[in-house]
Amino acid sequence: MATTKAATTSTQISRGNRTRTVAVSATSPPLPRPGRRYAIGACACLIRGHRYRHPAVDTDRLERLAGPAGAEVFAAIAAGLGGAPLTDDAALRLGTALRRAHPADLVAEALTQAGLRQRAAAKFSRADAMFLTRAGWEQASPEVVARHRAARFPQGRVVDLCCGIGGDLLALAPGREVLAVDLDPVHLWMARHNAAVYGGTVDTLLSDVRDVDLAGADAVFVDPARRTGRGRMRTGESEPPLAWCVGLDVPAIAVKAAPGIDHDTVPAGWELEFVAVGKDLKEAVAWSPALAGARARATILPAGDTLVAADGEPVEVRDPGRYLLDPNPAVTRAGAVEELARRIGAWKIDERIAFLCTDSPVTTPFARTLEVVDSGPWDQKRLPRRLAELDVGAVDIRRRGLAGDVDALHRRLKLRGSRRVTLVMTRVRDRPWGLICTDVA
Fold first, then answer.
1. How deeply is 5 buried, as exposed, middle or buried, from its count of CB atoms within 10 A (0-12, 13-18, 19+)?
2. Of 267, 258, 265, whose CA–CA distance to 234 is shortest?
3. Which of 44-53, 251-260, 335-344, 363-372 has the least mean pLDDT?
4. Is the pLDDT of residue 12 over 50?
5. Phi, psi of 15 (to 5 degrees)
6. Short-list 66, 17, 27, CA closest to 49
7. Where is the region Disordered (predicted)?
8. What is the mean pLDDT of residues 69-83?
9. H-run or E-run covering 79
10. Could you tell me which of 85, 80, 117, 84 has the C-alpha nearest to residue 95?
11. Buried-most residue among 100, 236, 319, 333 (CB within 10 A)?
């Protein structure tokens, strides 16, 4: 990518309570002005001229929240809740009481943070000590994903471009020299604080990521923006684009991407890793050749089980057997379904459909195993009677390769039985097919 060398000036990067001056491009945004309020962006470092609209806050207010006055309010909120969740009613009650002894704006900001921390607890084990924005924590990787990813990075100097609230820094920073870069001063402040919550110390640089000098960096992690102020970008689009990210002149690079990424957008020699937490596919990561170990892989957390897509003998295609396996979406996106079939001795029921079958139950972290209790060509008219015969009162519908309105089908079934089953709408040898299944105990 051709660039024009811009004139440089000096600015400061911060490390704890120390600062040092560095040279950055004159096109970089100005430093935050004391007392000025800034809009909060999910990854504002990447969107030139576009910022997200959120309640205003500034770093001075965050410093106050992190100091003794804020600690007193947070302690009062915790005491007032007594272990109960922070509901809207509780926030109104606590806010009214706390404003008698504390500034109203401090109380409001502390209650906002308390609510964000409560919601972020599903992602971060130390959320109760972090500072967050809604956009920041929602788009950050879960802690378990961040730790898995950080384990693949080398020691040395790592640069986190577009660090946001520091969701990856919590795992990258401990034991490494890390520079965190963002154009949003609020997120940059939070990133440094949140890294410290997990025992890390980071340098921070307020800059557009395109203007950062990466000389001396051993590795770079990039989480490019996939949203603008107008909403989510189309699959495959980001800012900076993936082509810019993979073209960085750094020994080792990892780029977070949407799980719908096209395999062909990653250069030869790179690895695409699709990461799921349990059954939920969370994200993809593109690893440069220095960090790659395969062309594509599926990883299932928290255990860290991994399956690499590989060439091998063709997998047989035949009619369904007694057990149906529904591969984890990470396996499907990695193109590793046939490798899974070879590992467990399964066959496919259709050339293009990602369901597998076996004649005996299989336990694997890479698929959900169901026992087939009814199987045959798709017959929607016969279906309600057959479900009634099986005493079915609740049904989960899995549709793959077969058109149909799942919500409308749910309404028409009018089930009254006692059993719960999974109804699979699919194709077998390119024929519309239905399977009624139960979970394997």
1. exposed
2. 258
3. 44-53
4. no
5. -140, 105
6. 27
7. 1-20
8. 96
9. helix 68-81
10. 80
11. 333
